[in-house]
Amino acid sequence: MKKVILAASLLVSSLVFAQDNSTLTRADKAMKAYELVDAIKSYQDVLEDDQTNVYAMLQLAKCYRMQNNIPMAAKWYEKSVFAADSEPINKYYYAEVLRQMGQYDKAKTFYEDYAKWYPEDTRAQLGITSCKESISIQARPALFSIENQKSLNSSANEFGATIEEGNMVLFASDRNAAGKVNYTYGYTGQGFLDTYSSKRENNEYSSIKMTGASTNSLYHDANFVTSPNNKLAAFSRNQFRQNFIGGSVKKSQADDVVKLKIMLSNFNEKTGKWNDYFEASFNDPEYSFTHPTFSLDGQTLIFVSDMPGGSGGTDIWTAKIKEDLTLDTPVNAGTGVNTAGNEMYPFVSNDGSLYFSSNGHPGLGGLDIFRAEMGGNGLYTSAYNLGSPLNSSMDDFSFNYDNKNPMGYIASNRLGGLGGDDIYSVKMIGIFATIELVDASTQKALANTEVCFSLNGKEVARGTTNSGGSLFMPLSVNQKYTITICDGTYLAKDAEINTYGKAVGSSIKETIYAYPVGNTFISGLVLEQNSNLPVGNSNVTLINGNTGETKTAITDAYGFYRFEIFAGVEEYSIEAAKKDYVGQTVKFDTKSIEANSEMKQNLILSGGQIICNLAFNNIYFDLNKADLREDSMDDLNKMLQILTLSDQVRVEIAAHTDSRGSDAYNLSLSDKRAKSVLTWLHEKGIAMDRLKYKGYGETELNNACGNGVECSEEEHQKNRRVEFKVLNSEGEVLCKSRKK
Question: What's the first-to-final CA gap in the chain, in angstroms?
Fold first, then answer.
């Protein structure tokens, strides 16, 4: 149903066909008039008399495809698409319905067959790409959960649900209802669309009824929405003369189809009611204007149209709303969102992101729901498929979300529903992650690069960076993802994203530095001479003696630096420097360096204060336990990283208890805690001769919670901890860790 209203090809005439000697002629006339129910019956009559009529089979398949009856369309394409007189385009359409049925391998074969005939048709390549990416899209971490709202749905079509004030839900449906003039829409055999309301209480829906005459007419009315500030309202309606079914319809001269228009109203604060609805100033019977929504400030109308100047099909447009409620000249939302296909159902979330449906971006089949962010040029960019279960192989659309509840809705004709299009509630369960991928050698963004996300060594998702090197990926909470470049052309250092403790619906941004593979590099650490600990934020300079080219870098938190170098250079010099320290300069050449290799060179800073960059959030223990806790893993991994990178560092693991329990018991317990950390580090590859452990019991409390002092559990927790002490070669303590 939504493809009719969304694709902006609506007939509201009720044609009566004169008797014709040719059933096939009657069928073709009905189809041309978009009276698909009559056309289907006539084509079926033709096939009852002539079961070999390929033309009737193909037309029947087309009718079912236009009605979005995908299984029946597939059935008749299967019977006819291999016939000698079947045009190649039918293989494309067969591939489309196969993809909507989730038969991606078979669909890909037919896309490829069609592409041999028409390689310039980009639709075929989109289909092939979608089939290839279907597994990856389905495997992405779920950002939302969904549930069919059976008390809202019927055997008819329901979609476009929005949440209004007072937990009122408005939606569109073509069901029959009391008081409704039940004209039949020949395209579907159902009634025309009207706007309905329902009261939502305790996740139950009741009192479903049509809204008033101001928002419902004799023909299609749908897509009702109010602005975030509740000052404006809008919906879609056929462009025809109100209450006059027989004539004065506004038809496009191009195709005799009644198009769609947007109706607007402003809220009258004096009366507490909406003023009379009026047409948007840009409405034009030559084109459709539909699927209105508003920007967060309520000052811009965002909508869908097939007007000229777009990318093809239906595009998303924006128009500023003037004080007199007329609209500025519409502006196309740009190619970051719009494609040669159909973009529909825009919705702006409270963080400014744009959600919309499209069949022009790679997807699972039919319409999929995408998310895009506002770019610096004021246009939306980086359209991203939100994956399963929000999207299916069928049509998924009309996303709307209320962050106050928090919950929202989509519509879908996926299997398992009650009718054609059903309304599903959606609830956010994941987080938004944005990856900025940077070439560590050039410091430039890595565009169009496929990035793989893994959990415990198993790939769970992948995505491709945009032209700015950015990638959006929904992630699950309380996980630690490893990030790699899928094709292996780059290696990423410390490429992890940790979502432990992140709130559902929150956003995180991470910059991942990737290092090219297949070139030659020099890398190493900048270390402080006494502690052998790495020195972050140090300056490292590389000078090419052959060319005089100078490269500079700042070491990361682990004191790491890396430069690309070239073979055959007679002299390079590399120097570390930091204020209040004496730097070190090392000279080397690359006359005999092997291709695709990496030179290692640590650099020493001396003469300054001892570096003790051991700052940790928490390495705590439960009462009377020595087991390592999950919330300590980040800091333990940080210590492991330091010990791994700087192989001269030796540490004492100092464990403590709170004051509860006897002195002897606490000394024994703290020994066990220290030993559990030592064992963990040793199992990760740190040599035992670099590790020392000691339990201090309750002898070094962090606060005044000694014996007999009444303290909270939180205060006692601060004492059940592990600290690290850096030792010199004589076993003397140089410095110890501190809390961040």
Answer: 58
φ/ψ of residue 647, rounded to 5: -80, 5
**What mean pLDDT do residues 178-200 have?**
80
Chain centroid to CA 310: 24
Using one digit for the tens of pLDDT, what is the confidence trace for 319-355? 999 999 999 999 999 998 999 999 999 999 988 899 9
Instruction: Note the pLDDT of residue 264.
Output: 95
DSSP string of 636-655? HHHHHHHHHH-TT-EEEEEE
Q: Where are the alpha helices (DSSP H) in 260-306?
A: none
- Judge whether 214 and 237 are in contact, CB under 8 Å: no
The residue with tokens 């120097």 is: 575
Question: What values do phi and psi take at 216, rounded to 5?
Answer: -135, 130
Query: Can you tell me whether residue 339 is helix, strand or coil?
Result: coil
Cβ contact 72:62 at 8 Å? no
Distance CA 594, CA 336 (A): 43
The DSSP secondary structure of 54-87, one letter per residue, reads HHHHHHHHHHHHHHT-HHHHHHHHHHHTTSTT--
H or E segment to which residue 476 belongs: strand 470-476
Both tokens of residue 734? 């140089």
Q: Are 333 and 380 a contacting pair, CB within 8 Å?
A: yes
pTM of the model as a whole? 0.68
Distance CA 738, CA 147 (A): 48
Paired tokens of 325: 């409620």
Query: In 3D, which of 572, 445, 577, 451 has the Cα closest to residue 521?
Result: 572
- Is the torsion defined by CA of 559, 562, 568, 574 positive or negative? negative
> How many other C-beta atoms can be found within 10 angstroms of the C-beta atom of residue 282?
20
Q: Where are the beta strands (DSSP E) in 465-582?
A: 470-476, 480-485, 490-492, 496-498, 507-516, 520-528, 539-544, 550-554, 560-565, 572-577
User: 675: which DSSP letter?
Assistant: H
Q: Rounded mean pLDDT of 154-160? A: 92
580, exposed or middle or buried, with CB in 10 Å at 0-12, 13-18, 19+? Answer: exposed
- pLDDT, the chain, mean: 87
536-551, pLDDT tens digit by residue? 899 999 998 876 779 9
In the predicted model, is pLDDT for residue 170 greater than 90?
Answer: yes
Question: By the 8 A CB rule, do 200 and 166 touch?
Answer: no
Per-residue pLDDT, averaged over 142-156, amounts to 93
Mean pLDDT of 581-607: 88
CB atoms within 10 A of CB 582: 13
As a whole number of angstroms, the distance between CA 589 and CA 595 comes to: 14
Residue 492's pLDDT is: 60
